[in-house]
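Supplementary Methods, section 5.1.

A reviewer requested that the exact input to the structure prediction be made available. We therefore reproduce it here, unchanged from the version used in the analyses.
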Amino acid sequence: MAASQMPPHLPGVLRSLEPTLNHFGYAAVVGLVFVEDFGVPVPGETVLILAAVYAGTGRFNAVVVGLLGLLGAVVGDNVGFAIGRLGGRPLVDHYGRYILLTRDRVEKATGFFARYGGGIIVIARFIVGLRQANGIIAGLSGLRWARFLTFNAIGGALWVAVWTSVGYFSGSNIDTIYSTISRYSTYVAVVVGVTLLAALGRHMARSRQTRAMT
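The structure derived from this sequence is encoded cell-by-cell as follows.
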C-alpha cells in the first residue's frame, strides 16, 4: 500500500521504526516483542503499535498482528522465566547489566513479587522496566511455572489488546492517544490486576468451602 495512505504525524519513535517494519513485516512484530520480553532493551511495544497502525490502513491484518504480538510476549517471558529459574541470581548478577537489569532493579522487582504475588505479573506488562524483567524476576522468585504462565498469558492478552486497539483505531491521532494511554495504562493495569486477584480469591474461598462441606 502506498506510503501516502499511512496516517500522517506519527511520533518520532514510531516513524523511526517504519523501515524495520517495511523490510521485515510481521517477523519484526513477533521478533522484537519476543526479544524485549526476556530483557533485551528493544522497542517491542512500539513496533506492535506501529504494526497496528499499519493494520488500520489495511496494510497488515489486525488479527495476525495481535496473535503474533501475544505469541512473542508469552514465549519471550517464558524464556526469561527459564533464565531466572535455571541461571539463578549469579547469572543475573553477572550478565544483567548488559540488558539494564541491575542488582538494584532486581531487588525492587523481587520486592514487588513478594508483596503482590501473581497479580504483579499482569500489572508489570504495562510498566516499562518491569515488563522486560518480568519473566526473569518470576523465575528468580521461585514462583510456580503454571501460575506464572496463567497470569503471564492474561497480562499479555490485555497488553496486546490495548496497544493493537490503540494503533488500529487511532489514525492520525496516534501521537496524542499514545501519550495519553502511556500515562494512564499503569493505573488501568493495577485495577485489572486487583480485580483478577479478587476474583481468584473468591474462587479459592468457594472451592475450600465446597470441600469442607463434602
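The mean pLDDT is 77. These observations are discussed further in the main text.
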